Amino acid sequence: CAPTHPLANEPAPQRADRLQPHTQVVLSERATRTEDIGVISPRTWRVTHLGLKIELLLAGVGWGSAPLTMITEHLERGELVRLEPAPWADGRHDVQLHTVVRADRPLGPAGSWLRQRFSAQD
């Protein structure tokens, strides 16, 4: 979240009951049947572009997660504050992945390698 956001001064780990009153910026697909992963607050702003999500976080609109590789510089410059939500304490966001392969066109070496790596994750 932005350093001006009320959660920026909340001691870590931030409990769910302290996060819920604040707007959570959530990356969401356009499909209506997508599962909410990591959503804690009933108050959400949903966006379909990660860059927009980060801009909203920088503007102080709400709080949310983002890939560390995309926000490291913002954290280092003090433009964002890293939160540690207690519900995410294990550091995992499990995402279900599906691979769809054409029956008439087998995967090449790279596709086979990627599918094997996805299958190996637990």
Jot down its keywords:
mainly alpha; two-stranded parallel ribbon; D-Maltodextrin-Binding Protein, domain 2
Question: Could you provide a short overview of the structure?
Answer:
With 122 residues, the protein is mainly alpha-helical. The chain has helices at residues 16-19, 50-58, 68-76, 109-120; strands spanning 24-27, 44-47. The chain has a two-stranded parallel ribbon with strand order 1-2.
General description of the model:
This protein is mainly alpha-helical and 122 residues long. It has one domain (6-91): D-Maltodextrin-Binding Protein, domain 2 (3-Layer(aba) Sandwich), CATH 3.40.190. 28% of the residues lie in helices and 7% in strands. The chain has a two-stranded parallel sheet with strand order 1-2. It starts with 15 loop residues before the first helix and ends with a helix.
CATH fold name: D-Maltodextrin-Binding Protein, domain 2
Largest sheet: 2 strands, parallel
Q: How many discrete domains?
A: 1
Output the radius of gyration.
17 Å
CATH architecture: 3-Layer(aba) Sandwich
Strand order of the biggest β-sheet: 1-2
What is the CATH class name? Alpha Beta
Low-pLDDT stretches: none
Shape: elongated
Quote the distance from N terminus to C terminus.
Answer: 30 Å
The total of beta strands comes to 2
Strand content: 5-15%
The H-and-E topology, N to C, reads as HEEHHH
Q: Which secondary-structure class do the elements indicate?
A: mainly alpha
Report the helical percentage.
25-40%
Q: How many DSSP H or I helices?
A: 4
Mean pLDDT: 88
